[in-house]
Protein: Putative plant self-incompatibility S1
Organism: Rosa chinensis
Amino acid sequence: MLSRSHIFFLLIPVLFSFTSMLCSSDELEYKFLLRVHIINALPQNSKPANIECKSTDTYIGERNLNVGDDFTWNAKESSLYYCRAFWGRFFASWHAVQPKRDDGKAAVFWLVNEHGFFLSWDNSTWVKKSVWETE
Ligand SMILES: *[C@@H]1O[C@H](CO)[C@@H](O)[C@H](O)[C@H]1NC(C)=O
């Protein structure tokens, strides 16, 4: 029969692996993530904007973003993220996340309208960073 102390020692590895599961490296890296938002603020009834984003090592995806939609993901603060957009005969490409520029921010917001691409870190103060181009 197992004594109480035997059971205790048998439980140590179980408790240990459970604890390390809770403190996995993903968990520790969490604070270095920032939330990226790309918000389609084109005029009502516009055709969707096609937007595709990737970082140097991760493919984020491609969306047909309708007016009012928000394309959002968690980015690693230390990576550069590129996006490109098509809207009718217009196109654009820009850095959705730039490690030096966005260092220490919790979120990066992009407002896309007919005048171009506007950056904010608080979803309220916007600075124009890029414009639509045509051939
Ligand atoms: C950003 O601001 C707009 C307008 O105030 C609001 O509708 C939207 O929910 C906000 N988005 C986030 C992610 O805070």
Notes: The chain has two domains: 1-30, 31-130. The chain has a mean pLDDT of 87. The first strand starts at residue 33 and ends at 40. Residues 37, 123 surround 2-acetamido-2-deoxy-beta-D-glucopyranose (CB under 6 Å).
